[in-house]
UniProtKB/TrEMBL annotation:
Residues 9-72 form the Transcription factor CBF/NF-Y/archaeal histone domain. InterPro entries: CBFA_NFYB_domain, Histone-fold, Transc_fact_NFYB/HAP3, Transcrpt_fac_NFYB/HAP3_CS. Its main location: nucleus. One of its GO terms (molecular function) is DNA-binding transcription activator activity, RNA polymerase II-specific. Belongs to the NFYB/HAP3 subunit family. This is Transcription factor CBF/NF-Y/archaeal histone domain-containing protein. One of its GO terms (biological process) is abscisic acid-activated signaling pathway. It is found in: Nucleus. The keyword DNA-binding applies. Keywords: Abscisic acid signaling pathway, Activator, DNA-binding, Nucleus, Transcription, Transcription regulation. Transmembrane segments: none annotated.
C-alpha cells in the first residue's frame, strides 16, 4: 500500500520554490510549506490523471508532454497549456540540436580514429621483419627503393 506522504512532492523542494518568488527577508512557516506541498501534489495528480485517462482510451501506456499539455487545456488551464507547450517545443529543439552535435562529434571522432588506424596499418605494412622499409608492389615508393639499390633498369614506375 502506498503511503500518502509518498505521493507528495518533497517539502524542501516546495519551500525552495516558494523562497524564489518572495523577498529575501520573508519567512515561510512549516504549515504554509505543507499546505502548498499538498495543493501542488494534488494539482499534479489531477492533471496527470486526465492525461493518463486519455492515453488509456487511446490504448497507450506512456504519458508524454503533449498529453500533459492537452490535459491542462481540457481542464481549463489554457494559459499553462500554452506556456508548457512552448517550453516543450524548445526542449525538443534543444534535444535535436544536442543529438546532431553529438552525432557530428561522434562521426568526427570516428573519422579521426579511422585515420589513426590507417596510419598504423601503413606503418606496420611498410616495416619488414628486420625493421627495413618495404613498399607495396608496383608503388612509386617501391620503384624508388629498387632504383636506389640498382635492381632495375626501368625509368618509369612499374
Amino acid at each position: 500500500m502506498v503511503d500518502e506522504h509518498d505521493k507528495l512532492l518533497p517539502v524542501a523542494n516546495v519551500g525552495r520554490i516558494m523562497k524564489r518568488i518572495l523577498p529575501p527577508t520573508a519567512k515561510i512557516s512549516k504549515e504554509a510549506k505543507e499546505t502548498i506541498q499538498e495543493c501542488a501534489s494534488e494539482f499534479i495528480s489531477f492533471v496527470t490523471g486526465e492525461a493518463s485517462d486519455k492515453c488509456h482510451k487511446e490504448n497507450r501506456k506512456t504519458v508524454n508532454g503533449d498529453d500533459i499539455c492537452w490535459a491542462l487545456g481540457s481542464l481549463g488551464f489554457d494559459d499553462y497549456s500554452q506556456a508548457i507547450g512552448g517550453y516543450l517545443h524548445k526542449h525538443r529543439e534543444f534535444e535535436r540540436e544536442r543529438a546532431s552535435a553529438a552525432a557530428a562529434s561522434s562521426s568526427a571522432a570516428l573519422a579521426a580514429s579511422n585515420q589513426i588506424q590507417i596510419a598504423n596499418s601503413i606503418d606496420q605494412a611498410t616495416v619488414g621483419c628486420k625493421g627495413q622499409l618495404s613498399y607495396p608492389a608496383n608503388s612509386p615508393l617501391e620503384f624508388r627503393s629498387l632504383m636506389e639499390k640498382g635492381q632495375t633498369s626501368h625509368t618509369e614506375p612499374l
